[in-house]
Amino acid sequence: MSEEGPARFVSDEGRDDTVTPFAVEPLDLRGRLVRLGPSIDAIIRRHGYPDPVSRLIGEAAALTMLLASALKFDGRFQLQTRTDGAVDLLVVDVDAPDRLRAFARFDAARVAAGEALLGQGQFGLTIDPGGDMARYQGLVAMRGQSLEEAAHEYFRQSEQIPTFIRLAVAEAVIGGRAQWRAGGLLAQFLPDAPARRQRDQHPGDAPAGAQVVVQPEDEAWLEAKALAGTIEAHELVDPTLSGERLLYRLFHERGVKVFAPQPVIEKCRCSNERVEAMLRGFTPQDRRDMVGDDGRIAVTCEFCSTLRVYDPAEFDAP
Q1: What predicted TM-score, i.e. pTM, was given to this entire model?
Q2: Rg of the Cα trace of the chain?
């Protein structure tokens, strides 16, 4: 186990709010491990989400950080679901490389009644490099499946990269108080030869009557999946188990390289300047419609719940 250098002892130092890249070169495996502690706890506590919604947003945040941490530029990555379930809107934003924010919109009565949180709708991933670069969006139909299942379907359809994803969320008692934690593992089969990578992928639509031959999965990928599949949910969120120790447990037989962890920071991008610019973009009539009983305009950020209050006369000046 190494960080692109000589072999060393496995660290037992647990690090929260990090994404740790790793590689298992004999299996052509690349991946990332995410551990979220204070960051996801702050997001959940700030909104006072009920437990089922807390677990869902924890899974979404872990999944988004696993995906966004692969970006090679300082852009924006967003995961969003829109469904007819009890949670009709779920949004997780990452300003690469490390700033995370998230919120969920839900029907409290339906959540309390135990209805499915995610129903029929869409699961979307958006990459916005900013500037003059084109934005990319990938969509997967939601049919009541979990976020894990939707992500697997996305990689089968859009990226055609054999991918394993496991997510976990739990509430643990740390320092005498309960704290939400989330974790995730992403492992991908990335051999140098593209033919090996895609041999288990369906070739797509074929003419009627054509014989479709799908090659069996690569043996290295089968072994990699078997090893990754031994991970337990509690291991992903255990504050006493370091990420290095967990990766060593999974892949030590084949030799795993662990690289420097990347930090995760819970931080919203909202600001007075952004909100003021937004309000100036409305017509005078629209702004008058926003004025409350106290004669002022109140704007609350959906992500960080920050309340900002403005005098509407500020926006009418020439």
Answers
A1: 0.87
A2: 22
Cα angle 32, 34, 37; round to 5: 170
pLDDT in tens, 137-187: 999 999 999 999 999 999 998 888 999 999 999 998 888 889 999 999 999
Please report whether residue 80 resides in a domain.
yes
- Same domain flag for 192 and 299: no
60 and 179: one domain?
Answer: yes
How many residues are recorded in the chain?
318
Scan for tokens 């967003």, then name that residue.
78
**Neighbouring-strand partners of residue 35:** 18, 183
Which positions ≥6 away from 293 have C-beta within 8 Å?
none
The verdict on residue 280 lying in a domain is: yes
Please name the residues in contact with 44: beta carbons below 8 A apart, sequence gap of 6 or more: 54, 57, 58, 180
Q: Are 242 and 1 in contact (CB under 8 A)?
A: no
Under 8 Å CB-to-CB from 114, ≥6 apart: which residues?
Answer: none
Q: Which long-range contacts (CB under 8 A, 24 or more apart) does 195-204 make?
A: 196/28, 197/160, 197/161, 197/162, 198/160, 200/162, 201/156, 201/160, 201/162
3-state SS class at 164: strand
Per DSSP (E only), the strands in 26-176 are: 29-36, 76-83, 87-95, 99-106, 120-128, 136-143, 163-174
Measured in whole angstroms, the distance separating CA 252 from the mean position of its chain's CA atoms is 27
Q: How far apart are CA 272 and CA 280, in angstroms?
A: 12
What is the C-alpha separation between 243 and 35, in angstroms, rounded?
8
CATH of the domain at 276: 3.90.1280.10
d(CA 149, CA 189): 18
